[in-house]
Each structure stands twice: as C-alpha cells, then as structure tokens.
Amino acid sequence: MELHILTFSPTGTSRKVAEGIARGIDCPVAHMTDITHKEAGQQVFGDSQPLLVSLPVYGGHVAPMALKRMEGIRGSNTPAIAVVVYGNRHYEQALEELAAFLSERGFRIVAAGTFVGEHSYSTEQTPIAVGRPDARDLEFAGLFGQEIAKKLKEGSGDEEVVVGTIEQPEQDAMTMQNFKQTVMTWMKSGLQMPASPLVDASLCSACGICADLCPSSAIDRNSPQETDASLCIKCCACVKGCPSQARTFPTPFARLLADNFNIRKENKFLV
Ligand SMILES: Cc1cc2nc3c(=O)[nH]c(=O)nc-3n(C[C@H](O)[C@H](O)[C@H](O)COP(=O)(O)O)c2cc1C
Question: Which residues line ligand 1 (CB under 6 A)?
Fold first, then answer.
C-alpha cells in the first residue's frame, strides 16, 4: 500500500496535519501533491493507492481555491480520507462538502477527520489556536493514521463512513449565536473589511518572500508592496511569512474570534 497526499495549505497547518496522519498510517508516501501554488491537474487514482486530502476551512466551507485546483482529479473506487482543518471556530459544511466532492469524482470515503490549526488571522494581540497543530494534535493525528491503516489492512477498507455522523466539536451555542449576530450586524452596517493585507513600507525590505508564499499570485515580486486585492484570498500566508513583520491583515474578525473561540476544541475522526 502506498499513500498519496493532496493538500492546499497557505499557512502550513493542513499540510502538517496530513503529515501527522501519514506517519500513523506508516506506509510509504508515494506522492505529495501540494496544490497551494499549482493545480492538481488531470490525475487518475487507482483503487490500491489511498488518497489523503487535507484542506483548510474558509467561512465554514472548504477553501474555494483548493476545490478549483482539484477539479481534474478522478478516482476509480479509490479509498479516500477526507480531512478539514479549521481555526478553532467551526468547520460547518466543509467536511460534507469535501466528502461530496470526492464521492462525485469516484472516491470512497473510508475515513474522515476534523482538526484544528492556528487561525490564519491569529496575531500576538489576537491569539486564536496559537501553535496548533501542537504535539497533542499530532499524536492524535498519528492515532487516526493507525486506525486507518488497521481498517485498510483488515479488508474492511471498503466500508464508507457517513461523514455527517462525526462527533461535533464542543461549542457553547450562545457564544456561536453571539458571533453570528455580530457578523450580521457588521454586514448590515456595511462595515468595511480590509480587501488584502496592508504593508508598512518602513519595514518592508522588498525581499519578495511574500510574493513566493502567495497562493494566488496577488503580490508582484518586483514591487511586493503592491497586492492585487481582486486576486487576494486573505489566507495570510504573506502576513505570517514576512520576515520583517511588514504585512498585517487588520480584520475586525481577529478580535471577535480571539474573544469568542478561546476554548480549545479537540480534533475528531471517524473510521
Ligand atoms: C478567509 C479565511 C476564512 C476562514 N474561515 C474559518 C472558519 O469559518 N472557521 C474556522 O474555524 N477557521 C477559519 N479559518 C481559519 C483556517 O481554517 C485555519 O487557520 C487553518 O488552519 C488554515 O489552514 P492552512 O494553515 O493550511 O492554510 C479561516 C481562514 C481564512 C484565511
């Protein structure tokens, strides 16, 4: 058995989770398709090579750019492991969406997981799930991997899971309601959100690392202080990766999320 990993991971957490699960499965990783900077292309997977897909949650959905870049993949009754990584708020429709996307393309969902990664908007002043996946998360990812390996080896690997039955993260209903209420009020009042990260020109050394990190080529390598807001997906890879902290994404969501979702959520899996 050889594992194939497919991930989209601007700030690296979805990829880390996938690698943690793969270590638990303990079989050679035949191929890693990282679609953060490119399309997956027209890839067809056989039925003997399980596909582990690990993608981030944006606004309760799978990051749209990831699904777009995966449009050309096809399975032929291929076992797939669907994993979504979210920033300690909630993943909402994302896992079901990913499972449906894979099923429609010829994959069988034999296992699924919901994992927490440091929120893309997390900063020192507004910490949200800082440092996750941490050692405890990766240990859990390894355990998940071991369960997947057992299932695939024992021949029960044919059995699909119903992703909707995965255990939900613990969440106080009132906090979630207040969060949604605040967001609705913001939307109604027309509150302006930053369309892309801001650059402090006095700190920027024009090294171009941000342009290399940007999954949507929204930053011009020759003048990295310019960001094309129409291309920016607000993933914050450039903010987190800037060596001189010249880039910030001052969204009011950061404070709201940090205040409301500061209780650690645990990862869940279904095999
Ligand atoms: C535009 C955007 C929307 C997001 N929406 C959610 C969300 O609805 N729920 C949540 O818990 N986290 C949300 N996050 C946080 C990411 O899911 C989380 O930080 C994830 O670990 C990022 O994955 P990556 O490191 O692979 O890029 C959002 C992040 C971004 C950039």
Answer: 9-14, 56-60, 85-90, 117-120, 234-236
pLDDT at 157 over 90: no
- Which of 89, 120, 247 is the best mutation target for the ligand 1 pocket, counting ligand atoms within 8 Å of the beta carbon and taking the most? 120
Is pLDDT of 41 > 80?
A: yes
Amino acid found at 197: P
Same domain, 117 and 227: no
Domain count, the chain: 2
Mean pLDDT, residues 30-41 taken together: 94
What's the half-sphere exposure (Cβ side, CA atoms, 13 Å) at 169?
22
Ligand 1 pocket test, pick from 62, 119, 137, 193 with the greatest ligand atom count within 8 Å of Cβ, gives 119
HSE-CB for 207 with a 13 A CA cutoff: 14
The CATH number given to whatever domain includes residue 91 is 3.40.50.360
CA 58 to chain CA centroid, Å, is: 8
Q: 22 and 134: one domain?
A: yes
> How many residues are there in the chain?
271
Domain that holds residue 236: 198-250
For residue 80, being part of any structural domain is answered with: yes
Is residue 255 in a domain? no
At residue 44, φ and ψ (nearest 5 deg) are -115, 130
The torsion angle over the Cα atoms of residues 191, 239, 37 and 222, rounded to 10 degrees, is 100
